[in-house]
């Protein structure tokens, strides 16, 4: 199963949370908090929901508690790899 890329996360942030962030920004500053980027807990929940729909895999409960894009990608990609 493919891993979630920063490009995909950036697209999901725009679609599910209405927040526009460039993939470059996510790559250069992966530890910038979602709160700083403008993604609240509801937005993160939306991102998790989109991923579950796209990949047909339940995401870990902790996914919606991630504080940074890097933390989120690590958790989600570990889950996807385990389910592959």
TrEMBL record:
InterPro entries: ACP-like_sf (IPR036736), PP-bd_ACP (IPR009081)
Gene3D superfamilies in the record: ACP-like
Pfam families tied to this protein: PP-binding
Top-rank taxon, per record: Bacteria
SUPFAM superfamilies, sorted: ACP-like
Sequence ranges assigned to domain Carrier in this UniProt record: 3-84
Matching PROSITE patterns: CARRIER
Protein name according to UniProt: Curamycin polyketide synthase
